[in-house]
Structures are given as C-alpha cells and as structure tokens.
TrEMBL record, chains A, B:
Homodimer. The monomeric form is inactive while the homodimer is active. InterPro entries: CPQ, Peptidase_M28. The keyword Signal applies. Its main location: endoplasmic reticulum. SUPFAM superfamilies: Zn-dependent exopeptidases. It comes from the Bacteria. It comes from Thalassotalea fonticola. This is Carboxypeptidase Q. Gene3D superfamilies: 3.50.30.30, Zn peptidases (3.40.630.10). Pfam families: Peptidase_M28 (PF04389).
Amino acid sequence: MLKATFKSAVLCIAALSVFTAQAQYLNETEQQQINALEQTALNSTLAYQIEESLTTEVGARMIGTEGDKRAIAWAVEKMNALGFDKVWTEEVGHYQWIRGDVEAKVLVPFAHDIKAIALGESVGTGDKGIQAEVVHFNTMADLEAAKPGSLTGKIAFVSYRMQRFKTGKGYGKAVGARVNGASVAAEKGAVGFIMRSVGTDNNRLGHTGVLRYKEQVKRIPAVALSNPDADLMVNIFKRNKPVEFFLKVTALRNEIVATKGANVIGEITGSELPEQIVALGAHLDSWDVGTGAIDDGLGVSMVMAATAHIAKLAERPKRTIRVILFAGEEVGLLGAEQYIIDHKDNLKNHVIGVEWDFGLGKIYSMQSGVGEKALPAVAELATYLESLGVAYNKGNKARGQSDMGAVTDKGVPAMNFSPDGTTYFDIHHTENDTLDKVNAKDLQQNTAVYTVFAYFAAQAGVDFRK
Amino acid sequence: MLKATFKSAVLCIAALSVFTAQAQYLNETEQQQINALEQTALNSTLAYQIEESLTTEVGARMIGTEGDKRAIAWAVEKMNALGFDKVWTEEVGHYQWIRGDVEAKVLVPFAHDIKAIALGESVGTGDKGIQAEVVHFNTMADLEAAKPGSLTGKIAFVSYRMQRFKTGKGYGKAVGARVNGASVAAEKGAVGFIMRSVGTDNNRLGHTGVLRYKEQVKRIPAVALSNPDADLMVNIFKRNKPVEFFLKVTALRNEIVATKGANVIGEITGSELPEQIVALGAHLDSWDVGTGAIDDGLGVSMVMAATAHIAKLAERPKRTIRVILFAGEEVGLLGAEQYIIDHKDNLKNHVIGVEWDFGLGKIYSMQSGVGEKALPAVAELATYLESLGVAYNKGNKARGQSDMGAVTDKGVPAMNFSPDGTTYFDIHHTENDTLDKVNAKDLQQNTAVYTVFAYFAAQAGVDFRK
C-alpha cells in the first residue's frame, strides 16, 4: 500500500511538472477543449459511419472508373453534410487500364489451377495466352543476376516471401519485385512474369499493386500468385522437373484513352489565420478489388471525422483545417503530383501535413518532421496524446505518408502517426479489403489522435518550419 | 514442496491402479509396442509427407474429374509404396457436374461486384444470366415462412451467419439453407437462390458444398456469397431500397453423362484373424476448389500413415487393418453407399470403424459407439491415449463420421475422435483448403491417436459389438 501510494505521488508530481513545464502552446480553456475533443472522438461512431457509408454506397473506386466518379460525388456530399465550410474538386488525369481476368495453370508436371491477379497496369497476354516453361528465382536479386538471354521465351517466377512486422517494414524488401520484376525479366528475354504476392496472409487471393515498365523494354504481362499458390509452385519445383505454365491475362492498358479523377478538398476555415493550412490527407481512390475499406477508407473516414468533430465546436480554430482526399494514389501519387502543381504558390501556407495510408490497428507512436524550434510544441502535443497510448518518438525525421510524403518533400512540415501494421499486409490490395476488417474501437482511437493533432496544429499557432 | 510431493505420490498410485485394474486387453509386450508406436507417430513426418504429396502432385479431386483419376492412381501407388499387403479399387459411379463460373453483381441501389461460388451440383442460369429483385431473409425459417408465390420472379437471399464452436456444431444450424434453400425458394416462385456462405471466416471466398433439389420442384441456380459480400448485402438492405441483382452461373449439371470414381482400399493383413477388419476411413475426393488439404487430405494422410507405422512392426497385428479411401463423399457419400452394397455380406466382419473428416486441430476427446461389454476395453484404450491429451467421453453414442457413419449405421461398431474444429469452417469447401493450413505438429498428434487406436483394435481381439 505504502509503495503504491508513493508511486502515485511520484507520478502525480511528474504529471504536474510536465503540465507546468511544457503547457505553453495551449491555454487552459484550449486544453479543456482538446481533452473534450479527445473524449468526443473516442466515444463517437462517426468515423465508422463514414467508413460504412463509403464501402456500402460506393465500394471499389480505382481512378477513372464509375466507382471513382461515385466516390468523388460521395465525398463532396459527405463533407458538406458534415458541416465543412468549403468543399471543391480539382481534376486529376490518367489513362485507361482495365484489369480483366487471369487464367493461370500449372500444366506439367502436375496440373493445377493457380489463383493470381494482374499487377496494376500490366499489359495482357492476348487471347491465346502464353504457354512456357517457368524459371524459378528465390529473390529479385537472383532474377537480376540471371544472364542476359537466359529467360528467352520463358516465364520468370520470383517466390520471395514478405516478412511480417508491426511497422510493415517487410513491404520495402518485397515490393521491388512487383514494381520492377516484369521489366527486369523482360530484359533477359522473359515473356511473362509471375511472383509471390507482396502480402503476409495465406489466402487464395493475389495482391495487386502497381508495376512500372522501364522505357525501351518490352512490356510483358505480370501477375501476383496467391501465397498458397506460390507455396505450391515452390513445392513443385522441389521435384526438380521442368514446370510448364499457362498464363492468360485479359488486362488492357490503353494509354491513349484519357480518364479523369479528382482530388476532393474540404475545409473548415480558420477564425484568425484562415490562410494558414493544416493539411489532413488520405487517398480517395482504391484498387478495383475489395471495397477499399482499409486502403484507404480508414484514412478517409478518420480525417473527415476528425475535422467534423472540430467543426462542431462553438468557434473555428485559428487556422484552416483542410482535408485533402487525393486521387489516383494507387497508380502513382497522381493526385499528390497534381496538388503540388495546382497549389505550388501556396505550399508555403501549408503549416503541417499528415496522412493515414497504412495500418489498421491502434496508433502507438508519433514522430514529427519539423524545424528544431518547433520541437517543444511537438513535445506538448505528445502530452495530449499520452492518454491515447501514443508514445513520442523524438527522431524528428518524419515525412508524410504516401501523398503527403510528396507534399512534405516540397518543404511542408510533417507529422507521422504509426499504427500497428501487423496484419495490414494480409489484406493490402486484395479482394479482402472490406468493412469487416475494420476494428471500430481502433478506429475511434485513431480518429481521436487525428482530432487532437488537428486541433493542436490549428489552434496553437506554432510555426513548424522553424 | 511437501504438497507437490504428496500430489505426485497420489497421481502415481492412481496411475498404478488404472494399470492394474484395467490393463487386461493388451499384455506387457503389446503395451510396450503401443507406447512405442505412439512415439513413432509423434516423431514421424510421414503423415505430413503424404499430405504434401497428395496436395502437390494431385490437388483438387472432385469425383469424375481428371484430378480424381490422378488421386486414385496416387493412392494405389502410395499404399503399395508404404508396404500395404493388398491394395485395390472398387468403382463408384456418378454423373457429370461442371462448376463453371459465377458472375454476381448488385446493380441497384449501389453497384458492386459480388464474390460467390456455385453450390455443388447447382444448375446454371443460361448465358444471359438472371436480373431480378432480391428478397432478404435472415434465416432459413423465415424463407420457409414466406407465402406461396411471394417470390415469383425474384432472387431469395438468406443471410444467416454460421456460429463458431470448437465442436463445429454451428454447421448443423447453417447447412440446411445450403442443402434445401434453392428448392424452398423455388417452391415460392424464386428464379435464383443466394446465401451467406456456411463458414466462419471473413474472406472473399464463397463456401461451396452440395445442394439437393426436391423432386417435382423447378431447379434454380444457387450460389453462396463470400461472407464479406453477404455483410455488404445486409448493409445495403438496411437502406430500405429495392435491391436489383444480376446473377450468371455457368455450371452444368449433366445427369445423363456418367462419370466414374473409385473407393481405394488397402490392407495390412491380420496375422491371426485376417478376416476380421478394423476399418480406418477417410474420403479421397475433395471439392474442385483448393487442394483438399484439410477436407480430407488430413484424413487420408492420417489413416495411411497410421497403418504404415503399424506395417513396420516385426509382426502384423492379429486382425486386418483396412484403410478405405471413399469416393464421392462430397456429393453425397457415394463411395460409402457403394461400399455397403459391395461388402454387405462382410460388414459383420468389420469389427469397428473410424473416420477423420472434420477439424484440423489436436484431438481432445474420444467416444465409442460399441456394445456394453466392450466398454472396459474402450476404457483401457483410453488409458493409452491419455498421454496424447485425449479425454475419454463415456457417452458411448458415437457413430462414425461421414462415410463411416453410413457404414456404422449398418451395425458396425464405431469410434469417434473429436479434434479442435474451431477454425475448420474458415476453410471448409473453399479455395483456401490448401497445405499451408496444415499444422504439422497437430497432424503428428492426430496420427499418433489413430495409430494407437488401430493397433489396439487390431491386436486386443475385443468384440466391440457385444
């Protein structure tokens, strides 16, 4: 008992000292406000309702598709309904790509149907498909090391297995094959490229995701096998017999057909410094598989709900809070690139940017990417987030995620919140990206973090550049 | 310390008393033998190797397909290679059914692609598909209560959600819709039947499984939606707007085209009572999705490995151990029915039967279905299984699983082993039924249980009928 009491007393003194030493950016009323906002977000189902609405009433929304058009209309309507002060769209152009279907089979030595999905923006095989021997590589490095011409007329198969981490860092090592594998294989003569999915699950669902064709290299069709199918292929290769494969991909890449998407932007206007913008990003587009609940419905719901909570206060915070729902993130940050062009003269007024485009668990860590003089303010923000279980990582090396990364690379200060990403790559870019994967409690915590951050950044008047 | 020592002593005395009171069916040498067999099975990778071989070299094997033919040849070859004394096949006939593809969409009020799979032996829709309004029922009972004619020209949707249990008992309440839903809906005028999958997962993969069309009722196409898609439909229905659906099923049910499968049977011949048969069952066929790793590759691997372990003893046990790999279980116990016909005069010599066709975790319980006088022998068997964590359920109401249930219904005594089935219905009848779902450690325990049982039943000479 004594020990416990003593410990409480120490904690109490520590808390007081934090309060007195660091609480200089928000006054007492504002502190009550930020704590009340945290509780509002923690107890609100608004973010989940937005998520349910987006996935139910819109669903899949790849840039340029009918789903994307509906998503844009949905976002405009929703932001208006939530009480945003201004809502508008800014056009983002792309070309047509149609996924089509994949038919994949092992023909020899053992007949198997193989579940696979076209990599994003892959070319097709033509109606007859490809029949060819498969050459197996354990890693992308092994494929890169293959001799010129050694894959002539063959299909290259990279079976690298992505590793699972809370931080999601296994993605970086795995994604190179998806982005570059087809062109590397084609340079050595391959007629097709197949790979183990960039994902940590064992479902019979391939993970899509965009590829990049190198210029001057023949474009060959590229697909990701579901992970159990990749396992099967590896087991077949253990028999040391030639493996004959059939691959038909009906994808169509029509670069001469223009399509359109749009960044959807909504604001609550600052009461004192309306020209200064706190930017909350997410991407509105999804792949054309699943309903984009996690990638990036979570981000969309969170930034809209956080802003809506703040919009319900009696007064607007000093600065403007701008929600940017980027277009065409999945096919290459198209919306971010367009945003940077459209707002190039105004990026200096973007005081800080944050995005959610990763993970689906609780946020456990915050890191800034700001000027040194702003660090005490970040430390104060961290104290408001402690009760939400968010630790303060003082590295100060953050850049924004995804789209916001492109924006902050242009000199806009960044904040980054790290959620638990342990299971994110089970779902990422698959048909399994659906509403049932959303944990409503975690979404409340995530939204509370974004709400607290947005209020602080908009109200405290900190120059995060300095 | 004192307490612990005292407890050990009590346990020790208890163990001794069990030994002296019940160990009357196996002599000391045989007891050493059964314990050694248990250790052999626990340390052996044989069952896993068989499983890997079946799923890699054969894969999906629905009755009548090329995969099934390869499975039959594989099973004959494997049993011979494992040292079985006799191996043969017995033909089982069926008709042709081809799964084809399903194209399913919600058209109104929100366009969505829906993932679904044809129920086993469903008819197709024709090339144009069906476009119709959907009527939603929460349960099969609600569908049954619908007024005659109330579904004329419509698609019936049952959204009942199967519950998860260790015993798998949620299946019984859920499967009625799959078996009978199409005909019940058709009786009320429906042109199509869609349902939430009979499964406990949330993957975008439907669960197939056989349906039964009632005689004199129009046969309508029937599909199972993946569970996330069923959730989506339920959420759409919450908007209280008419739901328009498109369904195209290219399945073909050709009852005039005969197909063939076979029961594959292998024995190690009894050294003293060769005419007396201990029957170990599993089914060789699978659905045409996945590689049938769990359903019923596990059973196939286990009964083959258990028998192979016993075949390596210096002497054959007294009775014959017969492995029966049944044909066409999935489409309605066809192999079991044929076996009962082919062996009707010899069922009296089947001293006991057991099958594995459920679950994928450790076995935690044993229950017999034998004559009362045989119960002391079962109790002794239970003592040999204690070290494997198998509790003795004294209910004595077991019938065999699946095929062996049909056999034991003809008067053959039964044993039943209950494995942990918590996750079984995540995978059951889906594309996800693949090798990666097999837990090699659990398979060792399972195989050890079957090995111990088979040796005991073959060696102890108990009349399980009395």
